[in-house]
Amino acid sequence: MKLTMAQALVKFLDNQYVEFDGKESKFVDGIFGIFGHGCVVGIGQALEQGGHNLKFYQGHNEQGMAHAAIAFAKQNRRRKIIACTSSIGPGALNMVTAAGTATANRIPLLVLPGDTFACRQPDPVLQQVEQPTGYSTTANDAFKAVCKYWDRIVRPEQLMTACLNAMRVLTDAADTGAVCLAMPQDTEGEAFDYPEYFLQKRVWHLDRRVPTAREIDTAAQMIKNAQKPLLVVGGGVTYSEAWNEAKAFAEAFNIPIGETQAGKGNIPYDVPLNMGGIGVTGGPAANAVSKQADLVISVGSRLTDFTTASKWGFQNPAVKMLSINVCAFDAFKMDSVSVIADAKESLTALTAKLSACGYKSGWGSELAQIKADYEKEIDRNYSVELQGVLSQTRALGEINKAIDKDAIVIGSSGSLPGCLQRLWRSSVPGSYHVEYGFSCMGYEVCGALGVKLAEPGREVYTMCGDGSFLMLHSELYTAVQENAKINVMLFDNQGWGCIENLQNNQGTDTFGTRFCARNPETDLLDGPIIMADFAKIAEGYGCKAYTVKTADELKAALDDAKKQTVPCLFDIKVGHKSMSDGYDAWWRVGVAEVSTSATVQAAYEDMQANIKKARLY
Predict the structure, then answer these.
(1) Do 122 and 133 form a contact (C-beta atoms < 8 A)?
(2) Residue 163's Cα: distance from chain center in Å?
(3) Mean pLDDT, the chain, as a whole number?
């Protein structure tokens, strides 16, 4: 079939399917795009020509639309994607950050940036970055560091191997992430006689990897030898849909559960063994249990510094690590004994093996008391009263109580992911969606659009700081275009409060983290706070907006928003430093070894003392 490279690409993507547990579904829902000279007459022409079933979504910032695509794929448990296309140069480079977000979180993202001319004859073209050290280097080489697969299609026939390799990575549970197919603008329009078999329907099978008998025997023996095991539920439980198996495993053997950001929401908060979030942004229950555990059973977790408290959280000198993960790279972290297999298959096999020998952990009634104390602490945070201003934790509590149980909450950066992991009470799988692998500011609003496109029948609430909103909220306009009703819960604390806390906790006075005017007397940013009216900004886009300063105003706004059909923004004015505190977890950051400040010197000494308590690898 004689087609341009771009036409063949569109036809190929339109015919890709995945199969999971016997259910077949279309893999590529559509394409986000912002057209420019590097793509509008190539892939843009192919999309406009029709003859396909791909929906076109109009983005308004390349990073923003790619973040929406990531959220769409994450909410669909990596079994459906929206590709993203851009022009060359700045348009392409805007997607590099999003590619990093996708790869860090193991989420499939297909980016299709335009590129300079393969023939080089018109060079240098508009928006081309020339490199005198190598003429084949273009701006799109920047994607190499943040992609799991990268290719540049300089001849139309190269599309075939490029597409197959792209799909190989996009549908690989162990090694997925961002994929970049750079498309020189002349090649996009060049024709080739593509074989029919390349363009036909193709089904990619997302088979569950079954653990070996040796892996299960070894893991079961480790658990039988443990008195106080801890089950860490990570994102692998989400993508495997293994929440029932994880709950059954914990209950069968009386094993407490700690949740990562990617794993939270799989087990209802009120399950007695669910100790909630673990690690730096975790709560008091899971962090207390983690220090006593003699075996950590990690299921589908990357064991990041926030989950492990910089490898400091597991204080039992006899503690051992057992990791169940489809990705070998993750399964061997922290010197873990590994089961390289699907979460559901592994937990099912382990439950059968341990049940046969009558295993029970040595945990006793202390778990019930730890859980009860934790629930009281959540209630305390949800009822914090401040003079003349709303606290962040109180606002979060009112939202948690008011919204539907199956509503989806989103977060990504700042102090809100910490408050969410510690305090949010989640009851329904798929209702907690926090991007914390990259913790990318600006994901919140754009990601909310992607989640709503994935789950149009559910209410979506994104928890966003004023700093993140200012960073990127481009797809709020797209949400208006798409009639995608999202709820932006904007917590305005007039600065980057999370980083200010980190700054202060490590001995440095507040500097550059509050949104102040420049003071002409000091020539520093220590003048009056600049109070923004975010509600007016949202109204200008066509959203319904609310300005909230009290709990009663928040309750009324939440109730009214349920009746709206357009995107809603809540401009919630919260008190400075009114977020939740950490709970006995340590985060290693680079503190100055030499300083004139006594508080910084003390922070450095504290860091050195904690380093000695942490595992080395």
Answers:
(1) no
(2) 26
(3) 97
Beta strands in 395-472 (DSSP E): 408-411, 432-434, 460-465
CA nearest neighbour of 269 among 253, 286, 252: 286
Pairing relation of β-strands 2-4 and 191-193? antiparallel
Predicted pLDDT at 388: 87
Count the neighbouring beta carbons within 10 Å of the beta carbon of residue 400: 19
Give the closest residue to 243 by CA, choosing from 442, 431, 35, 415: 431
Give me the number of domains the chain comprises. Answer: 3
Spatial separation of the C-alpha atoms in residues 516 and 495, rounded to whole Å: 8
**Which residue in 546, 509, 502 sits closest to 526, CA to CA?**
509
Instruction: Determine, yes or no, domain membership for 332.
Output: yes
Alpha helix (H) ranges present in 50-110?
Answer: 62-75, 90-93, 96-104
Question: Does the pLDDT value for residue 447 go beyond 90?
Answer: yes
Half-sphere exposure of 31 (CA within 13 A, CB side): 24
CB 242 within 8 A of CB 228: no
Is there a domain that residue 111 lies in?
yes
pLDDT of residue 411: 98
Report yes or no: 236 and 343 within 8 Å, Cβ to Cβ. yes
Burial 120-141 (b: 16+ CB within 10 A, else e): eeeeebebbbeeeeeeeebbbb
Examine the domain organization and report whether 34 and 166 are in the same domain.
yes
CATH number, domain of 410, equals 3.40.50.970
Judge whether 211 and 275 are in contact, CB under 8 Å: no
- Residue 325: which domain range? 213-370
Over the stretch 274-306, which tens digit does the pLDDT of each residue have? 999 999 999 999 999 999 999 999 999 999 999
Q: Which two three-digit tokens encode residue 43? A: 């892939």
Q: Name the β-bridge partners of 548.
A: 572
Q: How far is 485 from 465, CA to CA, in rounded Å?
A: 19
CB 439 within 8 A of CB 465: no
| Distance in angstroms (rounded) separating the CA atoms of residues 40 and 32 | 13
Encoded tokens for 166: 């792209």
The strand pair at 408-411 and 109-115 is best described as unpaired
By C-alpha distance, which of 229, 300, 228, 310 is closest to 264? 300
- Beta-bridge partner residues of 258: 232
Question: Considering the domain boundaries, does residue 605 fall inside one?
Answer: no
Decide if 194 contacts 220 (C-beta within 8 A): no
Of 573, 588, 606, the position where a domain reaches its end is 573
The token duo for 527 is 């003048």
Residue at which a domain ends, from 348, 370, 392 = 370
| Residue 425 within any structural domain of the chain | yes
